[in-house]
Amino acid sequence: MKNIVIAGGGVLGSQIAFQTAYCGFNVTIWLRSKDSITRTQPKLDNLKKVYTETIEKMAGPDGHSPENWARGIADADSFDKDACLAKTEAAYAGLKLELDMKKAVEDADLVIESMAENVNDKIAFYKTIAPLLPAKTILVTNSSTLLPSKFAKYTGRPEKYLSLHFANSIWRNNTAEIMAQSQTDPSCFEEVMKFAQEIRMIPLPVRKEKSGYLLNSMLVPLLFSGMDLYVNGVSDPESIDKAWELGTGAPKGPFRILDTVGLKTAYNIVQMYVKVPSFLAPYNFKGMSKMLEKYISEGKLGKSTGEGFYKY
């Protein structure tokens, strides 16, 4: 694989693109509109700054400490500060932003769909891109909760379609969960596993379709529990976070995680549960939905906009 296309320039899409370019691949980000470019470019500008600052810390006296070392950037035994800084500059300079879908994918070896968790939008995307893809192209989704089998029939290549899911802060939390659906060709699964390694991820095979994969099967209930405590008036975000952080030693509580992930992503996930009858729902999803709608309407989308549950 040489030519990689990322469909979507959101929080994770921009990170996947930058990390892939950092590892030497030709990377194009396909975006829907000029407005999408104005939202994506600042994310890429910030990632260049983040990688540069992280590399500087890694080269410092405390660089090998867990809080400073980024496994996605370099191995401890072969770390070269100047080489890593050069790779960061090359990644930033080489990234392409493209509005023309046909042009973006004309020589793609791999397309990574990293769009919002909206079923109808994803189906529309797959129907549009299917006839444009070269025969060689493997198509993967970075969906955090939706199963690939739900979309396989719309891709035009179910045997070359599967999931490749990343954790946030990809340069530091360098895991990649690879999950096939029933029609995925095993050879494509292995190719995606290999690609994950080549962009310095630790590939984690998910051998059975599971909504939420490995990480989010554990993380989403934590986020729901935190928001449930808040919308039901039990406590405030800061206190809920402190309870989790101080009680478990975790670096972030649910609301700091939500700010990092982005409140729109959280809202889209909650929307999948709001119609569950209240007597069956383990959480107050309607209350969560209203709460998130308020924050989003005020432009408080999380860390990416400078404010969510916290100010940055």
Radius of gyration: 19 Å
CATH architecture of the largest domain: 3-Layer(aba) Sandwich
* CATH homologous superfamily grouping of the largest domain: NAD(P)-binding Rossmann-like Domain
The number of distinct helices, counting runs of at least 4 residues, comes to 11
Proportion in helices: 40-55%
Give the quaternary arrangement of the chains: single chain
- The secondary-structure element order is EHEHHEHEHEEEHEHHHHH
Fraction of residues in β-strands: 5-15%
The third-level CATH topology of the largest domain is: Rossmann fold
Low-confidence stretches: none
Summarize the biggest pleated sheet.
8 strands, mixed
* CATH uppermost class of the largest domain: Alpha Beta
Q: For the residues shown, what is the average pLDDT?
A: 96
Order of strands, main sheet, comes to 3-2-1-4-5-6-7-8
The coarse silhouette is globular
Compute the separation of the termini in Å: 38 Å
